[in-house]
Design a protein that fits this description.
Order of helices and strands: HHHHEEHEEEHHEEEHEEEEHHHHHH
Structural class: alpha+beta
Subunit structure: Associated with late 40S pre-ribosomal particles. Interacts with PLK1 (via its N-terminus).
Helix content: 40-55%
Bound molecules: adenosine-5'-diphosphate, magnesium ion
Organism: Parnassius apollo
Number of helices: 14
Protein name: Serine/threonine-protein kinase RIO2
Shape: elongated
Mean pLDDT: 83
Radius of gyration: 22 Å
Strand order of the largest sheet: 3-4-5-7-6
Oligomer: single chain
Number of strands: 12
Keywords: ATP-binding, Cytoplasm, Kinase, Magnesium, Metal-binding, Nucleotide-binding, Phosphoprotein, Ribosome biogenesis, Serine/threonine-protein kinase, Transferase
Cofactor: Mg(2+)
Strand content: 5-15%
């Protein structure tokens, strides 16, 4: 953790990128991806994939592991970071890397800059990290399963965050301007300021309190609840205006527990203002007061977030996770079909190969796609 090893971005080639993408795609249905599978879906004209994989292992972007029934490759954290950062660099969204400025519960935050040296914020989602610790003594099948899942969960979290940030920004909510995302990484405007939790006093607590409560209501009227509306996810910019961040956990006001989440967000603000600014008010919003005037929740469900979700739905269902992510060991499902899964890995057929090859090509095309920033922020 900590510093990103970005030097690697310069000396790895397009062929390396292709091999890593092939392993990434292979990991959708294999715990460990057999080298022969990587070789056949990477679709490199001149071959030599095994040599490339060996080099990628040296750089710790891949690991080669012995499984119970077959051996194969696995993408590491660093390998996944590399894929996303390389794609964002190729798209010219980011051109240089700065310091780590935050470690959240499930993310690492860095400053980066574009080609014109404008500072930006890069958020790397790291879900499911805590799972690995707990699975050491379990069967290796189980361990691999968890290790493969972080990749999907982190990607879904980032995709969801970007979709919400974009929808909120489009509606004029005070959120960082979303710039682009790739895999588990989101690039956004860097807020000049700090989280509310670092603020010891404000000129007008009542005005800020009202503004925050109004935001909760405006969100609710759009059909969404932030779900983690606290002093760590509310920033104050240099002019003292609140900027809301951190959206992967947002839920629809149609969620069965919506009222509970709504009340919890309201309570967070009330308690913080009481503790920090000695400010209390009898006025606070209630769930039943919401007047729906927008369908942001439905819009998000139709966006790219859903496309990603569909691709990985089967896997998520298999893991019994759905979209509510938990790192609680007890909630991890038991998987007994290890031999079945492994047989699948050993005997992939032509049809599987063709599908995977297509996914590799599509992924690489998408990663090379020039970003239409103007269009994104229109
Ligand atoms: P997590 O989901 O891990 O809680 P957050 O999105 O809340 O991650 O970010 C963690 C911290 O990083 C924040 O409390 C804030 O200090 C900093 N941060 C996040 N986004 C930005 C941003 N756009 N500009 C500046 N700082 C940010
Ligand atoms: Mg946070």
């Amino acid at each position: 953790m900590g510093k990103l090893d970005v030097a690697i971005l310069r000396y790895l080639t397009a062929e390396d990128f292709r091999v890593l993408t092939a392993v990434e795609m292979g990991m959708k249905n294999h715990e460990l991806v057999p080298g022969s599978l990587v070789a056949s879906i990477a679709n490199l004209r001149h071959g030599g994939v095994h040599k490339l994989m060996k080099e990628l292992c040296k750089h710790r972007l891949l690991t080669y592991e012995r499984g119970k029934h077959y051996d194969g490759y696995r993408l590491t954290n660093a390998g996944y970071d590399y894929l996303a950062l390389k794609a964002l660099t190729n798209r010219k969204v980011i051109a240089s890397f700065g310091n780590q400025i935050g470690v959240g519960k499930e993310s690492n935050i860095y400053t980066v800059a574009d080609e014109d040296r404008n500072p930006l914020c890069l958020k790397l989602h790291r879900l499911g990290r805590t799972c690995f610790r707990n699975v050491k003594d379990k069967r290796d099948y189980h361990a691999h399963r968890n290790r493969a899942s972080w990749l999907y969960l982190s990607r879904i979290s980032a995709t969801k965050e970007f979709a919400y940030m974009k929808a909120l920004h489009d509606r004029g909510f005070p959120v960082p301007r979303p710039i682009d995302f790739n895999r588990h990484c989101v690039v956004m405007e860097l807020v000049q300021g700090g989280p509310l939790t670092h603020v010891t006093s404000v000129p007008d607590p009542e005005a800020l309190y009202d503004e925050l409560m109004n935001l909760i209501v405006r969100l609710g009227n759009c059909g969404v609840i932030h779900g983690d509306f606290n002093e760590f996810n509310i920033m104050l910019d240099d002019e003292g205006r609140p900027i809301i961040i951190d959206f992967p956990q947002m839920v629809s006001t149609n969620h069965p527990n919506a009222e509970l989440y709504f009340d919890r967000d309201v309570k967070c603000v009330r308690e913080f203002f009481k503790k920090r600014f000695a400010y209390e008010s009898d006025l606070y919003p209630k769930f039943e007061d919401l007047e729906r005037d927008d369908e942001m929740d439905a819009e998000i469900a139709c966006s790219g977030y859903k496309r990603i979700k569909m691709i990985d739905d089967e896997l998520l269902q298999e893991m019994g996770i759905g979209l509510q992510v938990s790192d609680d060991e007890e909630s991890q499902p038991e998987c007994d079909e290890a031999t079945e899964e492994e047989r699948k890995a050993a005997n992939y057929n032509e049809e599987d190969l063709a599908a995977l090859r297509k996914q590799v090509e599509e992924s690489i095309l998408n990663d090379e796609k020039k970003l239409e920033i103007e269009k994104l922020n229109a």
